[in-house]
Design a protein that fits this description.
Blueprint: H1 2-29, H2 35-42, E1 50-51, H3 52-62, H4 69-74, E2 82-83, H5 85-93, H6 111-127, H7 134-137, H8 142-151, E3 162-164, H9 165-174, H10 181-192, E4 198-200, H11 201-211
Antiparallel strand pairs: 1-2, 3-4
């Protein structure tokens, strides 16, 4: 029984991981775009739904076997490889089932650093709407809204594909989080196991989903 539970949990984690990876691969092309508009951009003009064929390029980029699409969308009751607007939008905006059941953190992270990154992630999650209207919050995925929130703190004319680490430090100070800038930077370095001065969308997602 224990072995069966372990296998089931592993499979659930893999499906959740694939679901999350595909979702983020799609969102990388449409950061900040409303979910409905993403659906319209991906589907064929002659069809009212998205087929699995339209998602093949994203699977290839994310290195997800195309046959896994059935498992990825099974939760949304997708049949015959046809995804309706409502079901695709549910997939894009789903913050629960795209998470794995466990997060494997860098073992070098200390308890204090985990606390710092958790406080930061929760702070961003709770304050994102200060820069984004409530109306638009419901039209994009939560992670897209958080990304829009943080990149607005970048210096003028910065590449919006990245958020500066200095910008994240500025946000942490502005919302009065309890840790020092130095400790936060060191925690980020440890989490990614390297020194960085900016995060791309995927790295930001990794950080937020690990601690919020």
């Amino acid at each position: 029984m224990t072995l069966n539970k372990s296998i089931t949990k592993k499979l659930m984690n893999q499906v959740a991981k694939d679901r999350r990876t595909l979702r983020h691969e799609i969102l990388k092309d449409f950061v900040g775009i409303e979910s409905k508009k993403i659906f319209e951009a991906i589907k064929r003009e002659d069809l009212p739904f998205i087929t699995f064929n339209e998602l093949v390029p994203y699977c290839q980029r994310a290195k997800i076997p195309v046959e896994k699409l059935t498992d990825i969308f099974s939760l949304y009751e997708v049949f015959k490889k046809k995804i309706s607007p409502k079901k695709f939008i549910n997939f894009l905006e789903d913050e629960v089932t795209c998470k794995t059941l466990e997060v494997n953190l860098n073992p070098k992270l200390t308890d204090a650093q985990i606390k710092i990154l958790t406080e930061f992630a929760e702070g961003i999650k709770n304050h994102r709407t200060t820069a984004i209207s409530l109306d638009s919050t419901t039209e994009r995925s939560l992670i897209s809204n958080m990304w829009i929130f943080v990149v607005r703190y970048n210096p003028a004319n910065s590449n919006e594909k990245y958020v500066r680490l200095a910008s994240l430090c500025r946000i942490a100070a502005e919302i009065n989080l309890s840790f020092s800038t130095e400790d936060f930077i060191e925690a980020v370095f440890t989490f990614f196991d390297k020194r960085i001065d900016q995060l791309d969308f995927t790295q930001f997602v990794q950080l937020m989903q690990a601690f919020s």
